[in-house]
Amino acid sequence: MSELKRAGSTWPPTIPVLVSMLAPTPEDFGMPATGEAWREALAHAHEPRRHRWSHEAVRLAGNAVGWWDLTHTTAQSQWPRLEKRFVREYQALVNRVMAGEDLTPRQLLEHDGHRSQAELAERAGQERADRLVDDAGLPHRMNADQGLRSLRAALGRG
């Protein structure tokens, strides 16, 4: 509070100023500030699996924006758009940490109008494959032994 007083601000602070001073920040939860997180994501976008991230939220936000876009965008006009998207993703993750939630990967809701034809086709193919797996009564994931047993049973060699 003495810093506020020394800076020449009104004392006692107004309610909005006091609320902003008491609001939790990412740093209060062991996370880097948004600007630091953005710089870290940019600096290590070329090797996201090798880097030891300051916090999982930084990696998840960078991944949501896209490592390829972060390493291959050369047009200066595209950087503000990427940074804005990163900030939105990172802030959503910060809010989840502040609420005590787990950071298992999940995406913000988006409109399909923002997706490319390739992304839409990939999603449609994945959904169709998932339906076929469900209809066949197969598990969605198998280890190597389970896969071999399933193949042998299908070939009548099990």
UniProtKB/TrEMBL annotation:
Q: Region Disordered: start and end of each range?
A: 115-145
Q: Residue spans with biased composition (Basic and acidic residues)?
A: 115-138
Superkingdom field? Bacteria
The protein's name is Uncharacterized protein
